[in-house]
């Protein structure tokens, strides 16, 4: 990896100047300004046609957020945008230090630029490029670095019928479901996940039906524009969503294929089906999100029977200062109980978001029992503070302890006890304005004897980041 310090300086300087310029306008927000679209994680979902009204063009560079294509047609336009994320991370023991892995401190930079073309409120051509770097990281992975490359490029179609709305997309795109436990855009790591896919959706509220077939994009860092997909790894799904009082339900069937997959007790082509169901909602001070997945199929000559459940519950004291929320997260995922038999029981978390448990990467959905009470405060409208403690066990001693994304810790399979360890987590999120935000997270993991006897030790992680979106 080569040094690129000037790029960091330029990006951070641009971030600071933009934030200063935006802040001068933010103080004078009016009702009209608040009609501007919010910045979204999926940038292609934003509708900047509201800037056809010159009175709403009040922020820096608005002339590039809405460029009309045809006179008298406000729905046909070009919009430019960018994202910049700078995150410093320090991890004194990746993988708990097993295998003499040393600590590391580094800067992760994600720079993205997009062009969004809308035609006649029916067609959309969205193209996004990125340059993702890991400055100072000793052993970067494909999820850490990706030189200048194509992040997304798809053609979208939308048509409204009397009975509902048809949406379709063809091309490279990001896909995420729900809390992104198992299918996500992978925003936690530095390089997000995309799919070369054909997507179709029918929205007839309160029902929505979605389906796609895809090849999973694989990321390389040998040179610019070298990312590619193939039939070696593919994923397809059929999904429904339905609104219910105070919430919603959803479910989907997904099929995952990977050539030359490897598990502790099996190897070969993996053909894994998954059936997923979710129920979420909010009623008064209570909120909840419950999801489960059952998997079946084959890895090589062996069968697959695996499962996972995830849940979050919360109670918010809305009439109390700082609006404290008491939360409880319960998660479980199967492991392989019997080495050498004809069944693989290790759950495959597919395309999980790397930040669902925390950013440290010490926890993942494989051979897991996880209990996490938490408390969250809002000292201001812009700031959120969360403190939590996580308790972890293995679902079965027959399988290994796993770290993210699905890395079996050497020397743990069939050894020790089910107790894995505990971690404490402290996180701060602060929205500086509509375009700029900051966050910091600290995690301490106290390992159990199974990890300690395998050569691991207690681990500490710290991450601090700034995110700019225009």
Automatic annotation (TrEMBL):
**InterPro entries per the record?**
Alginate_export_dom (IPR025388), Alginate_Permeability_Chnl (IPR053728)
Q: Where is the signal peptide?
A: 1-26
Does Amino-acid biosynthesis show up as a keyword for this record? no
| Positions of the Alginate export domain | 77-463
Keyword Zinc among record annotations:
no
- The species this protein belongs to is Rhizobium lusitanum
Supply the Gene3D superfamilies for this chain: 2.40.160.100
Which chain regions cross the lipid bilayer? none
Q: Which UniProt keywords apply?
A: Signal
One of the Pfam families matching this protein, by short name = Alginate_exp
Task: Provide the protein name.
Answer: Alginate export domain-containing protein
């Amino acid at each position: 990896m080569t040094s690129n310090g000037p790029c960091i300086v330029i990006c951070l300087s641009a971030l600071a100047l933009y934030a200063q310029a935006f802040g001068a306008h933010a103080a004078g927000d009016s009702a009209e300004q608040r009609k501007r679209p919010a910045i979204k994680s999926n940038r292609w979902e934003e509708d900047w046609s509201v800037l056809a009204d010159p009175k709403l063009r009040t922020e820096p560079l608005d002339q590039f957020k809405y460029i009309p294509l045809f006179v008298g047609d406000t729905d046909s336009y070009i919009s430019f945008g960018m994202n910049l994320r700078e995150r410093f991370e320090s991890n004194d023991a990746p993988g708990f230090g097993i295998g003499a892995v040393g600590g590391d401190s580094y800067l992760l930079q994600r720079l993205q630029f997009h062009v969004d073309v809308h035609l006649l409120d029916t067609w959309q051509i969205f193209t996004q490029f990125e340059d993702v770097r890991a400055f100072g990281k000793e052993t970067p992975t494909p999820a850490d670095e990706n030189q200048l490359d194509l992040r997304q490029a798809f053609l979208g179609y939308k048509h409204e019928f009397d009975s509902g709305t048809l949406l379709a997309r063809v091309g490279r795109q990001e896909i995420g479901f729900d809390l992104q436990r198992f299918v996500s855009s992978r925003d936690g790591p530095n390089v997000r996940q995309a799919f070369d896919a054909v997507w179709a959706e029918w929205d007839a509220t309160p029902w929505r039906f979605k389906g796609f077939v895809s090849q999973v994009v694989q990321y390389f860092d040998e040179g610019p524009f070298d990312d590619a997909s193939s039939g070696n790894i593919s994923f397809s799904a059929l999904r429904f969503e339905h609104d219910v009082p105070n919430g919603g339900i959803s479910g989907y069937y997904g099929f995952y294929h990977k050539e030359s997959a490897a598990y502790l007790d099996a190897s070969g082509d993996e053909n894994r089906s998954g059936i997923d169901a979710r129920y979420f909602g909010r009623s008064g001070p209570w909120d909840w999100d419950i999801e489960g997945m059952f998997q079946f199929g084959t890895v090589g000559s062996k069968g697959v029977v695996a499962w996972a459940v995830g849940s979050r519950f919360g109670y918010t004291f809305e009439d109390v200062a700082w609006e404290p929320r008491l939360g409880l997260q319960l998660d479980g995922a199967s492991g392989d109980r019997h080495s050498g038999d004809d069944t693989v029981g290790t759950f495959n978390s597919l395309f999980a978001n790397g930040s669902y448990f925390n950013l440290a990467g010490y926890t993942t959905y494989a051979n897991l029992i996880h209990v996490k009470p938490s408390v969250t405060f809002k000292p201001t409208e812009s700031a959120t503070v969360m403190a939590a403690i996580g308790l972890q066990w293995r679902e079965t001693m027959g399988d290994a302890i796993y770290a993210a994304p699905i890395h079996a810790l050497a020397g743990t399979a069939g050894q020790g006890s089910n107790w894995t360890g505990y971690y404490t987590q402290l996180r701060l999120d602060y929205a500086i304005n509509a375009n700029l935000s900051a966050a910091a997270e600290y995690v301490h993991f106290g390992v159990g004897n199974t990890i300690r006897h395998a050569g691991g030790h207690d681990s500490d992680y710290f991450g601090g980041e700034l995110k700019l979106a225009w």
